Amino acid sequence: MYDIIGDVHGEASLLKKLLKKLGYSKNNGSFSHPERKAIFVGDFINRGPEIRKTIRMIRAMVESGNALAVLGNHEINAIIYHTKDQGTSLIKKPSKHFLSLFKTINEFSLNPQELKDNLNWLRTLPLFLDLGEIRIVHACWSDKAIEIARSIYTEGKIKKKVFRSLHKKSDETLSRCVWLLTKGVYLKMPSDLHIRNNKGVMPRSFRIEWWESPEGKTFNELSFESKYKLPDYTVPREILPDVHPYPEDAPLLFFGHYCRGHGPVIVKPNICCVDSCVTGTSTLTAYRWSGEKVLSEDNVLTSK
Predict the structure, then answer these.
(1) CA atoms within 13 A on the CB side of 187
(2) Model pTM score
(3) Residue 264: pLDDT above 80?
(4) pLDDT band at 280 (very low <50, low <70, confident <90, very high)
(5) Which parts of the chain fold into alpha helices (H)?
């Protein structure tokens, strides 16, 4: 049986509090449960005040067999940032996607070897888990992307050339699949179309409910953003992105990434997003799965 834990983002104290609430205790340097195992959905680093401690906790649990974990987009960005190409850094001028890494970099500034060792460990983690009755991914489940992801592991880890390819986009199919699994689907607005959200901002892209058919939906219905609300105008068919419908009879699916600070956590009877926007809510969320076929709110636990 498994406890699926949302994006931790360097909040080690909240993670410790949640683990204890779930019945885990620390033995031989790792938190463990006599009957259960934790699963982390990615995004362990950045933002929070205890990034080094968070990685140590999660890594110890994984390496001792007390937990499983998948990569999130924040871990992938960290690996890319520290990957070199012909002796020079891949990233010459950090973009907005890499600015959030600076807090992680600063925490490890006096421990560069520890950072390098952790980056090597991160490359051993999968991009998804298919455990039969349940599935885990950071942002989006796509059967096609899953098949591509299966092929990128060599000798138990993802080679650095894969991360070079992601940054350079030298293999568009690979890049698209990896980012789909770890960042999900966005609707990108064309230059001649503008909408305004309830905070007065005109977003140029936004996250969508990738598991649903977008036909005939409004911007608000299609959006999977939790920080603002979009208008109730029907999305023009011409700009609809490709989606990845998730059947109602498919295994239970758990992911993070979407910052559901105000809920709901369970978005369909077989789909659950456990990211509670920890740095904005001071709350870490877990789903306690015990073999049920349909998700239940009674099994959602938080660190509060």
Answers:
(1) 28
(2) 0.96
(3) yes
(4) confident
(5) 12-21, 51-63, 73-81, 96-99, 102-107, 112-122, 143-150, 160-168, 172-183, 219-222, 278-281
Token pair of 226, please? 């939790």
Write phi, then psi, for 273 (nearest 5 degrees).
Answer: -110, 115
Dihedral Cα 5, 8, 12, 14, nearest 10 deg: -60
Strand partners, 154: 157
The single residue listed with the structure tokens 């996250």 is 207
Query: From the centroid of its chain, how far is CA 155?
Result: 24
Structure-derived torsion over alpha carbons of residues 224, 217, 188, 163, reported in degrees to the nearest 10: 50
Q: What's the CA gap between 186 and 176, in Å, rounded? A: 12
What's the average model confidence in pLDDT over 92-102?
Answer: 77
User: In 3-state terms, what secondary structure has residue 107?
Assistant: helix
Mean predicted confidence (pLDDT) in 214-226: 95
What pLDDT sits at residue 195? 95
Q: How far is residue 8's CA from residue 12's CA, in Å, rounded to a whole number?
A: 7
Q: At residue 207, does pLDDT exceed 90?
A: yes
**Digit-coded pLDDT (tens) for 55-85:** 999 999 999 999 999 999 999 999 999 998 8
- Beta pairing, strands 84-85 & 30-32: unpaired
Q: Tell me if residue 241 falls in helix, strand or coil.
A: coil
Please check whether residue 135 is in contact with residue 103, taking contact to mean a CB–CB distance below 8 angstroms: no
